[in-house]
Structure formats: structure tokens, C-alpha cells
Amino acid sequence: MSSNELPGREAMEFDVVIVGAGPAGLSAAIRLKQLAPECSVVIVEKGSEVGAHILSGAVIDPIGLDRLLPDWRNDSSHPLRQAVKTDRFYWLTKRRAVRLPNWLMPPLMSNHGNFVASLGDVCRWLATKAESLGVELYPGFAATEVLYGSRGEVLGVATGDMGVGKDGQPKPGFTRGIELRGKYTLFAEGARGSLTKAVIAKYALQQDHDPPKFGIGLKEVWQVPPEQHRAGLIQHTFGWPLDNHTGGGSFLYHWGDNLVSVGFVVHLNYHNPWISPFEELQRFKTHPLVRSTLAGGKRISYGARAITEGGWQSVPKLTFPGGALIGCAGGFVNVPRIKGSHNAMLSGILAAEKVAEALAARRAHDELEAYEASWRKSDIGRDLRKVRNVKPLWSRFGTIIGVGLGGLDMWTNTLGFSLFGTLSHGKPDNQTLEPASKFKPIAYPKPDGKLTFDRLSSVFLSGTNHEADQPVHLHVADLESEKRIEHDVFAGPSNRYCPAGVYEWVGEGADLKLVINAQNCVHCKTCDIKDPAGNITWTAPQGGGGPNYTQM
Ligand SMILES: Cc1cc2nc3c(=O)[nH]c(=O)nc-3n(C[C@H](O)[C@H](O)[C@H](O)COP(=O)(O)OP(=O)(O)OC[C@H]3O[C@@H](n4cnc5c(N)ncnc54)[C@H](O)[C@@H]3O)c2cc1C
Ligand code: SF4
Predict the structure, then answer these.
(1) Which among 13, 37, 421, 425 has most CB atoms closer than 10 A?
(2) Residue 7's pLDDT is what?
(3) How far apart are CA 419 and CA 409, in angstroms?
(4) Three-class SS of residue 305?
């Protein structure tokens, strides 16, 4: 059935439509209802429930929460139960861990006053606050289309049709998506949002800014024997198992009921196509520093998600007629701090304040210029500006020299100047791979099933589930160039960078084909970012599909 033979879509009208119930979207909704209780606000969320698709470290700087809900500490239901007590940084070699003294770190790196938690739990809790203020929240519905008006303004979004078969034809139980129309639409899809990407392209929002930059973060949650648990201890490392030319590092946070969140981030501007971020996490866990914490424990969760890393230089223009980008849709992660949830909340609050002013002035579908004009001078801008050269220095000079120079630059920025000005990030991440023939394939150790695991058993722990009979949500635009570039030149890196084993080249010669196991996709968005042929587009599958993260 072609789209013009389908029944029409129902439309619902709101003052504000928000796409994504992460910290940014929920904070925007709450602030809007605090300022203008009579305005109507809707949030659509593609996860089966709020929090199901949220993956973060997470050590949370409460600056955003303090501004949104100043009394949150007196609310007995809040999930920020574990204050950071001990903060350690290490440089790793294969067998040794060299502790860096805390006094060497610029003050902005201190985690004093921060909390260890699950960001998914924080979102579940914020969702109850939003709903109690009258926000309409629809989990299980992905926004799949931006609605534009005749003047090119954003009018809202449409959710995807449900009950479409693999062949693209309606099945029994088929229902059309719904149009959610708003005076303003806030895109809060997080890193590499699918609609955000379309809006950035339509309005050329990235023009005059560096390209967006990303990392992939993989995370496991472990329950460890009580004698190995140190409530409130957080550790960050860089160095081994990555080589000097590959950026990234680890985090390890003790919290909850003998829980340890262990994660590894690989910067997606890596060059060697044989690198597997998943295997780097597995290898990292075998380091004596980590093994001694996890030994005898049980892995209870696994997941992966792209993290924005471009910061100050890469944040695009955030506004366009009828809408704005908030949170990691704009890209507000402070890379050396590995924190973005506080800025996601602050940007949601800031945008909401500008929307509330616009609604009060009876405006609609115009540009929220005051939001774009104010973020760089706000706490978000102050946070990101001081660290703007850390990632470019790391990329140019490698880990050993680059991290040192980055530290020096953070210190001088703390004092109000930089020796480097503002360095550029260079190429987009999908243009940084070098041909596979320049490197030796990496022989990663086999999993032992106790400390280290394979990808399929890991995906099982993410609770990922997609309706099998639906169109593949990962679109490869041109299979011929995918073979010629991705396979022939770079030896199929998708097979290694995908943390869920979705992509496999099978067969040989004329029979060679790319198999896409889309049902395993954990929605990390890495393929959309890193495919060297620039062919892969991630689109939202039918609502509710994807991971079902708990404690992430
Ligand atoms: C491995 C890792 C570790 C991190 N560690 C920390 C940390 O320790 N501390 C910290 O502060 N920050 C950390 N961050 C960064 C932090 O998680 C992000 O900055 C933050 O989650 C961004 O919030 P957001 O609301 O913009 O987006 P997200 O948290 O990504 O939320 C976006 C929401 O939108 C939904 N969505 C997306 N597209 C659609 C659509 N089309 N339709 C409907 N719903 C949609 C998603 O399902 C999701 O629920 C980490 C990130 C990673 C990946
Ligand atoms: S298919 Fe793409 S978005 Fe899905 S898990 Fe793999 S890399 Fe991530």
C-alpha cells in the first residue's frame, strides 16, 4: 500500500511537543509546567517505558536538579542515594595502575558534591514529577517524522505507524501514527537523534561550527561480593588497553546494593578499523585494578550508547522556526568530566524558560532566538568552554602528550586564558579510519564467561527486543559502495564497532552480502556515526522496540 492509500493520521494539538524523555526533555517539561501551569506539554519516548533506553555512567553533578527542583534532597523518593566519597584517577599500563594525585587535577574535575546513580532511575523519578504537574507522557511511541509548515517552520512530529510487516505492508492490527502538533517542538533525543539529524541538515545548523564528534560508551553493571564494594568510590582511567593513538578511557563507580558500574568509552575518531570497542571493555576488565573488584561478582546488565564529545566547538545552532535542540541533541557533554546529564537538564530548563516567555507573548512557530543567544554565557557555556581543547589536543598529540597538554589547558582556562585559543576538531568521525591493510588484525582474548563475555550473551542482558516482522530500521543507502568501501577497504569495521553484533558480511565473491540482525540493535547510533561510506542511517523502529535497561 503506498502512503497516499493509507488512512489519514489523527492530529493532537499542544503548546509544546517534546521528543525524548531523557533528562533534557523531562527537565524542559517540568520547567514549562512550573512557569506556565496552564500550557499543554506532551513528551513522546521510544523506549517501552521512561528510562528503558537511558544509558549513562552515572556520576551526576546536581547543578541541574538544584535549579529544577531545589527541594529535591527532602524528597524521600529521589534516587540520588550515593554521594561520591573517594575520587581516583589512574593511568594504566598492561599490569600497572599509576595513580595521579588529585591535586594535579584542575578544580573542575573534582567530584566532591556529586552523586553516583542510575540515570535511567533519575528519569523514571523525573517522569513522576512531570506527570504530577500534568505533562502528558507517551512511552512506547517513537517520533519518526518532522512536520513542516508552508513557511518551512516546524509544526510538530508524527509517531510511526504500528503493525507494518517486513515487506512494508500493513498487517492485521495496523494503526497509523499520530500527529503531535505544537507551537514549539523541542528535540531531546540525545546523542545522534534521528529527527535531530534531519533538522540539523534542513536548517544547516552545523554550518559555521565544527562537525559533531562522538565516542561510544559500553557499560556493564555488576553486583560484587560485599568485601569488594566501597560505597561512593569512583575511578577513572586512561591508557591501556588502548594504544597511544586511540582516545578513550574507563569509569568504575561503586553504588547501590553492592553494585559497580563499569564502563569504557572509545573516541569514535579512531583510525584502526580492527578496533572493537566491545572487546576493549572486555580486555579492560582483566586489568588487576578492575579484576580484583569484579572477581566473584555477577554481571547483571549490559548496554552501549554514543556519547557526544564535540562540546563548545561542535554545538550547532540550536534554534530554527518552531523549535530547538536541547540536551545531547545539541551535544553538551563535558568530555574530561564524562558528564552531560547536568547540562542536558540546564539546557532543558533554559529552553523551557524561553518557550514560556514566547507563549506568554502569544508567539508560535517562530525562532527562540533568546535561547541560542544565551547558552554560551550560561553555566553550560562556562562548563564547556574551559575544556574545549582537551579532545582536540588528545586527537592531535596522542594520549601521553595530549592528555598532559589538555590538563595544562584546563588549568590555564581556570585562570582565565588558554595558550591554544580554540582548537578545531578536524574531520567527522566517519572519515578518520585508515585502510585495514595498514594495520594487523587485533587478536582479542577469548571470553572466559566469568569476567569476560561475548556480544550475544551481553545483548541478552540488555533486554533488547524488537517485533521481528517489521521493516529493518537500519537503512544502508547504497549496498554497492558499502561493499566497495566498508568491506573492501576497511575490512567491515561495522562488525567490530557495533556493540550488539548487528552487522555481518557473509559469503564470498559474488555471493558476499551484508546481513543486518536488526533485532539485536541497542540503539547506540554508532553505525550512523562511524560508517566510513556514510551510508548507514539509523531510524526509529516500531514504538517500544530496543533495549529494556534497568539500573543503567
Ligand atoms: C557511557 C556513558 C557514560 C556517561 N556517563 C555520564 C556520567 O557519569 N555523568 C553524566 O552526567 N553524564 C554522563 N553521560 C552523558 C549523559 O548520559 C548524557 O549527557 C545525557 O544522557 C543526555 O541527556 P539527554 O536527555 O539529552 O539524552 P538521552 O539521555 O540520550 O535521552 C534521550 C531520550 O530520547 C529518546 N528518544 C530518542 N529519539 C527518540 C525519538 N525519535 N522518539 C521518541 N523518543 C526518542 C530516547 O529513547 C531517550 O530516552 C554518559 C554517557 C554515556 C554514553
Ligand atoms: S546497529 Fe547501529 S545503533 Fe544498533 S547497536 Fe549496532 S551500531 Fe548501535
Answers:
(1) 425
(2) 85
(3) 7
(4) strand
Q: By the 8 A CB rule, do 289 and 97 touch?
A: yes
Quote the cell numbers at residue 125: 523519578
List Cα–Cα distances, 30 to 106, 114, 187, 444, 517, in angstroms: 33, 22, 15, 46, 38
pTM of the model: 0.98
Quote the ligand 2 centre to 335 CA distance (angstroms).
22
Question: SS3 for 494?
Answer: helix
CA–CA separation, 203 vs 182, rounded Å? Answer: 19
Q: Per this entry, what is the length of the chain?
A: 552
388 touches 422 (CB < 8 A): yes
In the chain, the percentage of residues whose pLDDT exceeds 90 is: 97
**Distance between CA atoms of residues 309 and 132, nearest Å:** 34
For a pocket test of ligand 2, which of 521, 523, 529, 537 has the largest count of ligand atoms closer than 8 A to its C-beta? 521
Instruction: Confirm if 48 and 140 have CB atoms less than 8 A apart.
Output: yes
Note the pLDDT of residue 5.
77
Residue 2's pLDDT is 60
Residues of the chain below pLDDT 70: 1-4
Report the sign of the C-alpha dihedral through residues 242, 254, 109, 107, in that order.
negative
pLDDT given at position 544: 81
Ligand 1 pocket test, pick from 42, 111, 189, 383 with the greatest ligand atom count within 8 Å of Cβ, gives 189
Residue 480: partners with Cβ closer than 8 Å, 6 or more residues away? none
Least distant ligand from the CA of 248: 1
Query: In testing the pocket of ligand 2, which one of 522, 528, 530, 549 has its CB within 8 Å of the most ligand atoms?
Result: 522
Ligand found nearest the CA of 234: 1
For helices 23-35 and 341-360, give the axis angle rounded to 10 degrees: 30
pLDDT of residue 1: 59
CA distances from 182 to 267, 343, 458 (A): 37, 24, 40
d(CA 134, CA 129): 9
How high is the pLDDT of residue 517? Answer: 96
